[in-house]
Structure formats: C-alpha cells, structure tokens
Amino acid sequence: MVKRLINPIISDSFFLFGARGTGKTTFLTEFFKDLPVIWVNLLDPVEEDLFVRKPEEFSARVSGAAPGSWVVVDEIQKVPKLLNLVHHLIETKKLKFALTGSSARRLKQKGVNLLAGRAFTNYAFPLTHIELGEDFSLQDVLQWGSLPKLFSLTTDDARAAYLRSYGLNYVTTEIQAEQWVRKIEPFRKFLPIAAQMNGKILNYAKIARDVGVDTTTIISYFDILEDTLLGFRLDAFHESIRKRQAQKPKFYFFDLGVKRALEHTLTVHLLPQTFAYGDSFEHFIICEIIRLNAYHARDFSFSFLRTKDDAEIDLIIDRPGMSRVYLEIKSSGQISQEDCRTLLAFSKDPNVCPILLSRDPHATMRGPIKCLFWQDGIKEIFSR
User: Fold this and answer.
1) pTM
2) Which of 132, 244, 266, 313 could make an S-S bridge to 136, C-beta 3.0–4.6 Å?
C-alpha cells in the first residue's frame, strides 16, 4: 500500500477534502485501522435518504460512543445540515469526527456550519512522485495521471476506460444529479473546451461563444470545477492583490489523466520534444508543487506572470519568510542558454530566487539562475 503524505492531527476533528478517486476512504480505513470507529457513508443512497429525512437518527447512531471516540462521515456535503449535529456532538459528547468531502459547493451555501475552527482542514490529491517512490514513472504519469486506482490496472485499455468513465460519472453524479446547471448539454460541451484551455489564460468570452452560452455562465462553470475540486485557477501576478484578482487567470485540472480524458486525447502517445509533452510536463510540475504545499502546510501562494510583450514566468511562488521564487519549467533533457533567456530578464531583483526545472540531470548555474533536475528543484523550493 502506498504511504500517503496526508497527515491529519489525531488530537482533533478534521475535514479531508479531495476529488472523487483520490483515495480519501482508503486512507481513512488505514489511518483508523487500530481504533474503534463508527462509519457513516453518505454515498449510500439509503444512508443519505435517512439522514436527509431524519437527521436526529445521526445522533442516535453515535449515542453509545464514549468521549474521544471517532466518527467517520464520508461525503459530508451530501447532507450538510448534519454539521450542526457534528458541532453539537463535539461540544457535548466530546466525540471526534473525520469528515470527507469531494465538493465544497453545498458547504459554501449560506448558513452551513463549518464548525468554526473545531475541525482542521486537510486535502487528498492524486498520488505525488514522493508517494509513488520507486513505482513512479514520469512517462506514465504524464500519459495517464496519478489517481490511485490507475496503479491497480494492468493495461492501457483499462486505464483509458477508467478515466473516460471518471469524466462521465462526474457529469452524471456530481453535476446532473445535484442540478448545479440548468441545462446539462452546454456543460458537457464546455468540459472538453476547458480541458483544451488547461494552463492557458482564460478568455471567458471566447469560450462562451464556442459553447453557446453567456460569459457569466462560463465563469460559473469554472466555479463548479473548482468547487468540485477538479481544478484550480492560477491568478496573474501583481504586487496588489486587488489588481491581481482583476486580471485573467489560468486554469489547471487537478489530474493530468482526467484532463486528457475530457479533451479526448488519451490515445495520443506523448513524445518528448513535442508541444503536448512540454505542456503536460509543466502541468505535472505545477500540480506537484500545489499538492506538496498543501501536504506540508507551507502557506505558499502562487501566480504566473505574462508581460505585454508575451514574456512569461510559468509560476511565481511567494514563500512566507523566504525569497520569492520565479520558476521556469522546461521539458528538455538538456538545458541551453536560450532556455534561460526569459528568466534572465526577470532576475535583477536580489529578493527573487530564479529557478529553472527540467529533465536535465545536471545541475548548473546560468548566471543567477539555478538550473536543476525537476525532483531536486522541488526539494530546493520546499527547503527552509
């Protein structure tokens, strides 16, 4: 079994958020294997229906538990009003809760009790290169992503079938069943376009024309992707947070395989030195850094920079108490001076640490720029 980097604090209740298939339930089963635990699975339609109709049955279910006992509630967003009872049981019965969720959409609604700091927040992501260890293959992760289920499948056909069904189940289970959009067909049309826009600056108006809806609807569609933890926006850099939010962001899907399934490119083999390979490598590195920031609780913040003359820094990392990182990501197996040209133009600030990550195994200095093998570079970014 893969040793996960998820590390909840056992002394207190906690949320564990993550998209479907990231291994939340598997992790908690292992995490609590030596403890008596009461399990409530809200993915079970019978359980969900019972607690929607009679939430008091939830209190009855845990009434015999001793103070300090653990209760796991899978997919708490299915019945968010149970959080009022969870709050009450933490205060009066001194019970501890592990609450998983694959969507924050219902939990953002007005009046939902998020326990006011009585439960810490943790996240589950697709597997990182650190968790996979010797089983990690860059080519396989770029091609298929790293959802845990994939590593029990032995053929490419099975992997492709799983990822295609993941996208279909997302539409039918998360979107259509929850009635988060008025018409499902425009949203279906939106998903492959959103996947094609992965890592690009979002032009909401153009996407709206392609889908056949208005711009406000497209913005709401991206909100749904974020709320269901299928991706994240990356804001454009500006020293002013207000101005940063006013500029157009990029969007990245949470997993490379899911993105490729949604854009219908799973059968296209990724080859080094191609544009598609470079895009996938950049996507992979950015996802890894986002995941490790959450797992290590480092409070880094992220943005990208695009100038008026189209010079671009792939990722800017603000690290509290440390120098700001300007990160360039290249999929090359051998770095040249030309690869460093953009970073060199932004490296005059003494408070900036310019780093170039690539597949080149040889660490070099190109002026002020540290050119590092990608794994070594990620370690460097998170070192204190």
Assistant:
1) 0.93
2) 132
